[in-house]
Amino acid sequence: MQATGKVGLFGAAGAAGQCIAAALSAAGRGYRVVGRSRESLQRAFGHDPLAEIVTWNPDDPASVRAAAAGLQTVIYLVGVPYDQFAQHPPLMEKTLAGVTAAGVERFILIGTVYPYGRAQGNPVREDHPREPHTFKGRMRLEQEKLVLAAHGRAGLSTLVLRLPDFYGPCIERSLLQGVFVGAATGKRAQLLGPVDMPHEFIYLPDIAPVVEILTRTPEAYGRWWHLAGVGTITQREVARKAYALAGREPKLMVAGKGMLRVLGLVNPLMRELVEMNYLMTEPLVLDDSALTKLIGPIVKTSYEEGIRRSFEAARASVSAGDATRRETVRGT
Q: What range(s) does the NAD-dependent epimerase/dehydratase domain occupy (predicted)?
């Protein structure tokens, strides 16, 4: 593996960006965090002297170029609202134009399983057909096609790292976060059903050391890779384990596809979840043996430990919120 230059995290303020930044910092590597809001970046990374904070406008290639200036590697973590997935391909086009003009050498897209469509057999290797049957899958596929087509152009090397659904401490966009908050508060957890189907999750902090290694592994580029979790688990089992840590019985409110359709009449987000519900009813489990062969054994957090850490983080967050509210009441 080669030593590498400065890394930029584009769309850094989210949970994945913060995890990857922590791994870069632990390795003693300076890094740049890029996002629209300086305030949110300062809040997330202002404590780290190794972090350089830069704002950008991802719709403007000139702004992208300025944000990428002097970087060797860009890690792309830019999200869009769930009902605006059509933005993914044009945003990627502008980003690739900007980073290429800036002379960036390596580009990593953190991707999803959406481009595969339905699993044609599990576990799924990288040679599985990319045949998405959903709009979101097609948009993600167009996005990663742009990334892979840019490989070898103007000195740029690219790769896609494909992940399953993720979870972890205080990760609000995780399907499982409601379970940990529910267990910590004793309230009912809202879940997408069915909850008794095995599903693959990855503990999000586990991706960070892998991404750090890939930034300095030139032979990894020019293709996509899988990073899997530690097998499958049902959401009901996650809930059982999390509530048990609080000494409580699980309390669940489950929304299946039918309920999502009804809720979608008044809630746009619920409407957008309908087409992706197949991932809850038809498991897709990744095989990451190719990546392991490339970079060696990958350390992964067990569900038992990941659930414990996630619950404890939720409990601490709830306690901190309660303390803040008490202080506010005393001060009024």
A: 10-218
Name the region of 152 (left: φ>0; alpha: ψ -120 to 50; beta: rest): left
Cβ of 5: how many Cβ atoms within 10 Å? Answer: 15
pLDDT of residue 331: 58
Contacts of 119 (CB under 8 A, 6+ apart): 128, 282, 283, 284, 285
The per-type count for the chain, helices as H runs and strands as E runs, is 13, 12
Banded model confidence at residue 320, pLDDT cuts 50, 70, 90: confident
Per DSSP, helices labelled H in 56-195 are: 61-68, 88-101, 135-149, 177-185
What contacts 177, CB < 8 A, 6 or more positions away? 167, 170, 171, 310, 314
Angle at 280 between CA 276 and CA 284, to 5 degrees: 90
pLDDT at residue 328 is higher than 60: no
Q: How far apart are CA 64 and CA 46, in angstroms?
A: 22
CB-based contacts of 226: which residues, under 8 Å, 6+ apart?
Answer: 124, 125, 126, 162, 286, 287, 288, 290, 291
Round to whole Å and give the CA distance between 9 and 108.
10
Chain-centre distance for alpha carbon 87: 17
User: Does any domain span residue 50?
Assistant: yes
Domain of residue 70, CATH code? 3.40.50.720
The model's pTM is 0.94
Contact 88, 142 (CB under 8 A): yes
Residue 182 maps to a domain: no
Segment 216-220 mean pLDDT: 97
d(CA 139, CA 215): 25
pLDDT in the model for residue 96: 97
In sign, the C-alpha dihedral spanning 279, 289, 107, 93 is negative
Provide the domain count of the chain: 1
